[in-house]
């Protein structure tokens, strides 16, 4: 390894949200809604010189068995609004928001991101997600019309249309010269015309080119199409593979797709989601990690989780007893709605079979099985152990960095900032000061040049 | 505490409420060339923070942020290709959110175009603005009948007829309001004993159905601090009055004389009664553009100078006042007698006229006992003397205890 220069690690902070990573029952857990929580979390991330803060999004409250799911945190604020407010209480931290390409329109989303980029002086990023289901669609004018196989075709066209809008101002149009009376140098600033399968729009984009030119683009789907979409145009992937072997496989797979799009290896950062538990000794950290898992997966939560696979009501089963002997209901999952995780189980019969075998072999109850098979803490140990594992995963090309999700809101990041970050800095693999002011600077990705605006050519010809 | 205005006769001596309409460098097309303006800064947070801070120093009830889903234009139905006027705007909700943590008392009211936006998105955005500002959010709902704007979305072949646009906007506000109510205040229970984070009996499907859209709900964002952020709309007659009557907490009326103001007030109040909302408080504000200087000639000369730069005399869709702070105070108090409870003032040139409003008009009104001397409440509803409403669904739950969400 001595011939290879040390890779610099990228770190980001995911505000803990609507899932069972959060331990809301902990007395130290605060509000997921109060702005104070966001301020605390963002300032910790900025104090630690993290690249960015990350917000996930969901557009309908999850349901299980026809009722709103009530065991995890429920409720979150609007992504754009929180990020804009956070821009007012931070100076360098990047602000990444998850925004869906199915239940939005390019003109509106593009101007929200361009506005966020102006209002934060170049710190905006967009995590493009493609949830398409009719369940979520019931909250929107469009309804749930989008077939699953069109989710990425719309996403791709949504993103390319948004880029046409961002590029409709190349950054030279604003004169704002009071003396001469020229506010614009170019009367056709913002002109665009896009004709495609999903969008047929034209006119004038009304936000001048923003500090980063365009927001940084993230992608967070794991399918083959999702990876291809990321390779074709994203700056970073929010991934779910944070172990050495899975991470390296994913990393190699996705980076291997870049050349086909004329892109280089370093033009796409791979940043898996990661959790952590710290302790004074490794043993203590493992003990705490075990307790955290028990808090995250109560008996009820375990039953509900099993229902994602079984697709039927299992409330009569004892979480401390054996797995159900009935088989999963195959077909559309109607029991758990609004959950991305449900889509992981595309062969429920096989999953059920595997789980039964595992439970029998190891004598696991339902709850123990769920604890054993669901995502566990990525990094567990002393600050030193955790710093070493993060560094070694990155140096081994299992990732370019991590998006950390603490299990306590909003204070769960503090101990990481205070103990792990200094060790990474000592190892020379993480910044001690921000080198630049924009998120592109932090990630080391260039400001894109504006492509020639389509609208002006159309209009001129 | 001020008494909530009712649609019965408002007191003609109650202190005025004041809002300032922020847009670019000001209402006059040449305002960006006014000395002291920083036209290069119009797309920075700093510019907006400074303006809102100035309005807050003047104890204004709230600021509004103009917005549209198209480039500004003097032409009725498309871009005007002009290079001598401010063009471009930042999203109003985001701008309001950006300044929220930098201010403490003033209300923040972004403009939203109901015609092309999703009620679900708008509801959670404004609810969140209310959360991040701790109860100071509102929205100004507007419609768009412009073909160029419709082409930016490509969903509709042509604009809807005006009456239908306003009907749709009223439905939009209804859906937004139901979503704000869809979480009862105490829905989050964090009951460790039962493992339940929320009491789902206190979360409600809104099941809004209208001719142009339907929304199922509930919101993903918990009920905002004010319960219902303040809904405002501008009216100049007909369908726009009906929107104010049916949907608003504050209406801005573009009337050009005391008589016109009286007629407009009567028309909206009557529409409010026929909508069955006569007992719900509704503020009616006068809408006015202002050019203010210590002496009247200076104000007139300044306006003429701006007109010369713009190459045309300034006109607006509402009354334009040019004169002294004392003269403006006279006019506002005269209008108050016509049944208006406050005013939304549009600075002709923000760099000059906003400080003139906060530092000259406000003291003048205070001397006359017609405006507050300190912020008396922490929320926008509080400043406007509007009570915090209970969730409509909470009321229903207590009436019919069995009506929970569908199983
Ligand atoms: C790590 C990760 C995080 C995700 N976060 C979100 C999210 O916050 N909101 C959302 O709607 N979808 C989220 N998704 C779902 C995906 O973006 C995507 O829409 C969905 O998985 C379908 O695409 P796929 O088939 O390529 O996975 C996430 C997916 C992954 C892998």
Characterization of the model:
The complex is a heterodimer of chains A (461) and B (407). In chain A, 36% of the residues lie in helices and 15% in strands. Chain A is α/β, with parallel strands linked by helices. Chain A folds into 2 domains: 10-281 and 379-443, Luciferase-like domain (TIM Barrel, Alpha-Beta Barrel), CATH 3.20.20.30; 298-373, no CATH class. Chain A has an 8-stranded parallel beta barrel, surrounded by 5 helices. Chain A is globular and about 80 Å long. Chain B has 407 residues and is an alpha/beta fold. Helix content of chain B is 36%, strand content 16%. Chain B has helices at residues 45-57, 92-99, 119-132, 147-153, 162-181, 238-247, 258-274, 296-310, 325-336, 350-367, 380-384, 392-399; strands spanning 17-22, 62-65, 107-113, 138-142, 188-191, 196-198, 208-209, 214-215, 230-235, 250-253, 283-292, 319-323, 342-347. In chain B, helix 8 links the parallel strand 11 (283-292) and strand 12 (319-323). In chain B, helix 1 packs parallel to helix 10, helix 6 crosses helix 7 and helix 9 (325-336) crosses helix 10. Chain B starts with 16 loop residues before the first strand and ends in an 8-residue tail after the last helix. Classes of the chains: A alpha/beta (461), B alpha/beta (407). The structure holds flavin mononucleotide. Residues 56-58, 98, 100, 129-131, 220-223, 225-226, 238-240, 273, 340, 343 of chain A line the site of flavin mononucleotide. Chain A: This is LLM class flavin-dependent oxidoreductase.
Write a brief caption for the model:
The complex is a heterodimer of chains A (461) and B (407). By secondary structure, chain A is α/β, with parallel strands linked by helices.
How would you describe this structure in keywords?
heterodimer; A: 461 residues; alpha/beta; eight-stranded parallel barrel; 15 helices; 36% helix; B: 407 residues; disordered N terminus; disordered C terminus; binds flavin mononucleotide; Diverse_substr_monoxygenases (chain A); Luciferase-like_dom (chain A); LLM class flavin-dependent oxidoreductase (chain A)
